Amino acid sequence: MENTALILIDLQNDYFGSFEGAKWQLYETELAAANALKLLNKFREKNMKIVHVRHEFDMENAPFFAPNSQGAKIHNTLTPKENESQVLKHEVNSFKGTNLKEILDDSNITNVIIVGAMSFMCVDSVTRAASDFGYNCFVAHDACTTKDLEFNGIKIPAPMAHAAFMAGLEFAFAKVHTTNEILELL
């Protein structure tokens, strides 16, 4: 796939159970990050466009991803290299208030592969926005993660929440595949 970028969303320390002091642990983050790393390594090997997106809350007493904290840093297994683009965001949607679209357009990107966290929030938001902007979207579902949810007294285990959001994205916004399936496309 020519003109393709890998977008890694919010794979930051506060989401990792293996990070001491993690403030917002997600379900099997390490497994999702290991799959994201497979894609990251392939993109590095092929010298393809890579964009790391990092979230910091723009408020005092942030629940997680506090500005300039260790928890807000990208996990050391996925540390950006000097030639890879980095975007700092303060909103759920990685395009809102950032230069993400400029970065993609300046590199003539038409296809985006999305990985990261959280499936029901930032991954969902960036995928829908990217689709609306006309990019061909692919989500590596096993390189994404989320947490247990609750709504109106109904508890939703993380794997079910993840599956529901991946189904919604696949229905109208993206091709949703495994990491290995996407690696075969590259």
TrEMBL record:
Any Pfam family: Isochorismatase
Keyword annotations of the record: Hydrolase
One MF annotation (Gene Ontology) recorded for this entry: hydrolase activity
InterPro entries: Isochorismatase-like_dom, Isochorismatase-like_hydrls, Isochorismatase-like_sf
Lineage: superkingdom: Bacteria
Ranges where the Isochorismatase-like domain occurs: 4-180
Official protein name in the record: Cysteine hydrolase
Upper classification of the organism: Bacteria, Pseudomonadati, Campylobacterota, Epsilonproteobacteria, Campylobacterales
